[in-house]
Amino acid sequence: MFRTIIATGAALAAPTAAFAQVDSDDEIVVLGTREQGYRATVAPQTNKSDTPIKETPYSVQVVTRELIRDRGITTIGEALRYVPGFSPQVGFGATNDRFYIRGFITPYNLKNGLRRSAYAPDEQLQNVEQVEVLKGSASALYGRFEPGGVVNFVTKKPLDEPFAEVSALYGSFDQLRLTGDVSVPLSGTVGLRVNVSHDDRDGFRDFTFSRDTFIAPVIQWKPSDATSVTLEGEYARKRGYFDRGFANDPLFLEAPRERQFGEADARYTNRGGVASLFVDHRFSDALSGRVAFGYSDFTKDSYYYAFGFPPVSRAAAAGPKVNRRTSQAYDRQTDLTAQAELYARFTTGAVEHKALVGVEYGYDHWRFDVRNPPFGVNIPIDFDNPVYGQRADPTVLVSDGAWNSDSTAVYAQDEMELGNWRLLVGGRYDWNELRNRDYLASTGEEATKRGAFSPRAGLTWTPARALSLYGSWARSFRAQVDVGRLRDGSLPKPLIGESWEVGAKAELFGGRLTPTFALFDITRRNAAVSDPVDFDLVIQIGKSRSRGIEVEVPAALTPQWRLIANYTYLDAKILEDSFAAPGARLVNAPRHSASLWTTYDFAGSLKGASAGFGVQHIGSRAGNTDNSILLPAYTRVDANLAYAFDAGFGPLRAQLNILNLFDKFYYDSGGAFIPLYPGAPRTVTASLSYRFGGSR
After folding, report:
1. Closest by Cα among 121, 93, 92, 95 to 108
2. 3-state helix, strand, coil in the chain (%, to 5)
3. For every residue of 461-474, which 3-state class applies, written as one string?
4. How far apart are CA 519 and CA 499, in angstroms?
5. CA distance 354 to 176
6. What is the pTM of this model?
7. What does the pLDDT look like over 227-278, one tens digit per residue?
8. d(CA 617, CA 627)
9. Which of 93, 280, 338, 455 could bridge 242 with an S-S bond, Cβ 3.0-4.6 Å?
């Protein structure tokens, strides 16, 4: 029934095309940066094409630098809050940000089009130019991904003119953040850009804090108009309190958000770096190529208080006790991706083609060990009146292993244009070699070899310049070597996804209003979730489905007034399973969510000042697989004021930000593997930045 509705769907629209060809007698509306609103016309890295977003047969949302700056936010998780179909997910130990898209978690991200794991790295916003979100299956281009979508971080590049910006921020919970962004042309063909940040803050929960330092240099060489060579690096180090949040028991919904059930000595240290190289060359107007290489190496050294099994004991008459055990863990994760691609433009008869062929090799290697106290040792703490000071040394090696995935792939895509019609067909074949090694049990040395073909197809019809209608279908897969083993010791079967989508993208009032509308239906088979009998193992649920509606409306109402609004209806549930009852909702997937952000630039005597206001509503969500925990709906309001002025020695920008203006109590996330995390209370920050040189 739903696919019948999808097959007849149509409506509104998306951004204009920066690279689209137009007839000489067409009206061309040129908008300034502020007048464009919060929209992008192309997402070339995510799509691997310069085809305008308006003409692509799937949903693409872009968090622009303009929106990031206007909102004054500093984290990746906050940057994505106003993307339709997005749900926040706190990472392991609250050490990083992760995401759900259309009801499915995204365990891997892209950076400049190269795949990288989301487990160990803490993605920084300081060197990010914009964030691109491709909805639906990305496997036809990128291989091992979930069917909900993928997030791509596009980094800043050297500018043609000297530029520098330094800033300082101070706010709630003693947060002090210092940043620098410097771009220097070293010669007529070589440019250097360096971004740095240092963030020092305490948390709103007991004992919590974080201290992180980040540096990201990039050097770019353009020996000719046809060639560019870009070398990028990142180094990050972050220390903080390892926060396990609240356990998956309904009792914890009664706990104050600041209460900690660990001890004050819990710690983590994340460190590592990224190196990447991109060589782009245009052989002719019809043929170009790209070679890309990316490598990352991250470690996580942590000591924390894990919840026991079960997490709560109600045997004592005095009140419930929280069962705990200490854990000491070390993880090292290395990722490598190497790509070679060719792009061609050609014509066969009346059909114009944009073709892509590529080959990729990559690996994701994860080495880990975990120590716990001797079996049976429990250090309970009172739920209502916790008294701290207990400790049990983790002296027993309980886990020592490695999860390795090596992959070789070939892929191709062709975008064919005939009049007002555009047909996209593509596919990718991956050969995977998987090893899940348990050094304690001396198992898993033999490799598991699997292959998968991931096709996609889409059709776009543009009956008028202002309107595009589209439909698409795709399949996805993800080898699940990194989630654990089944009870029989074998690796889980690959996760298989299939997605259908139809929608419409419009461009109205000279490009000032660019709404989009999408209907989607996604099914997923073989997802691994924690085993309710033994949390060190996994089980596979049979089949789950996510279907819904997304609407996004970026608008530049006047040259001074911009907004972006969206709404998502999401029906995400289990269809077939041997553990959870059919009809159970998928975790962290609200049925209804909506958001709006708007910024107004004042004029006249208040020129240079601006005010921003945002509201986000997240509906109720399942907090665990069997739906015994339901996270309540919430509405969060944010606001800011900014003032740009010349202090006599250059342009300054002062900004006051308030997140959670009305101090709403809410839960950021829950999940099958990850505990519950409450959201932050009202958070106020004030910042001052100084910019000189060319425009950013």
Report:
1. 121
2. 5, 60, 35
3. EEEECCEEEEEEEE
4. 11
5. 48
6. 0.90
7. 999 999 999 999 999 999 999 889 999 999 999 999 999 999 999 999 999 9
8. 21
9. 93
CA atoms within 13 A on the CB side of 509: 13
pLDDT digits (tens, 9 = 90+) for 596-619: 999 999 999 999 999 999 999 999
Task: Report the C-alpha dihedral over residues 639, 645, 647, 649, rounded to 10 degrees.
Answer: 120
Confidence category of residue 480, pLDDT binned at 50, 70, 90: confident
Q: 173-180: long-range contacts (C-beta < 8 A, 24 or more apart)? A: 173/201, 173/202, 173/203, 173/204, 173/683, 174/200, 174/201, 174/202, 175/199, 175/200, 175/201, 175/202, 175/685, 176/200, 176/201, 177/74, 177/201, 177/687, 179/126
CB 155 within 8 A of CB 216: yes
Cis (ω within 30 of 0) for the bond into 310?
A: yes
How far is 675 from 654, CA to CA, in rounded Å?
37
Please tell me the distance from the alpha carbon of residue 418 to that of residue 408, in angstroms, as a whole number: 34
The full 3-state SS of 579-634, as one line of letters, equals CCCCCCECECCCCEEEEEEEEEECCHHHCCEEEEEEEEEECCEECCCCCCCEECCE
pLDDT tops 60 at residue 510? yes
Residue count (the chain)? 696
Return the closest-CA partner of residue 589 out of 25, 12, 48, 88: 88
| Range with top average pLDDT, 36-45, 457-466, 620-629 | 457-466
DSSP conformation letters of 179-221: EEEEEEE-SSSEEEEEEEEEEEEE-SSTT-EEEEEEEEEEEEE
Distance in angstroms (rounded) separating the CA atoms of residues 300 and 237: 10
Rounded Cα distance between 552 and 68, Å, is: 17
Q: Assess whether pLDDT exceeds 50 at residue 8.
A: no
The pLDDT of residue 18 is: 30
Residue with tokens 């099914």: 523
> How does DSSP assign 431-448, residue by residue?
EEEEEEEETTTTB--SPE
Q: What tokens does 403 get?
A: 């999860």
Query: Can you read off the two tokens belonging to residue 577?
Result: 């399973």
Residue 309: pLDDT band by 50, 70, 90 thresholds? confident
Q: Count CB-CB contacts under 10 A for residue 639.
A: 14
pLDDT tens digit sequence for 78-125 = 999 999 999 888 888 888 888 899 999 887 889 999 988 766 567 899
Calculate the CA 292 to chain-centre distance.
21
On the question of pLDDT at 6 being above 80, the answer is: no
**In 3-state terms, what secondary structure has residue 657?**
strand
Q: Show the tokens assigned to 464.
A: 């008028």
Structure token digits, residue 295: 């490598």
Phi, psi angle pair for 93, to nearest 5°:
75, 15
For residues 536 and 556, the answer to whether their CB atoms sit within 8 Å is no
Q: How far is CA 535 from CA 119, 261, 487, in A?
A: 18, 20, 11
Listed residue (212, 197, 61) closest to 130, CA to CA: 61
Spatial contact of 323 and 287, defined as CB atoms under 8 Å apart: no
User: Under 8 Å CB-to-CB from 237, ≥6 apart: which residues?
Assistant: 212, 213, 214, 269, 270, 271
Q: What are phi and psi of 424, to 5 degrees?
A: -115, 130
Tokens representing 168? Answer: 């300082």
Written as six digits, the tokens of 248 are 């998956």
Which long-range CB contacts under 8 A does 5-10 form with residues at least 24 apart?
5/519, 6/471, 6/500, 6/501, 6/502, 6/519, 6/520, 6/521, 7/471, 7/502, 9/502, 9/503, 9/504, 9/517, 9/519, 10/469, 10/502, 10/503, 10/504, 10/517
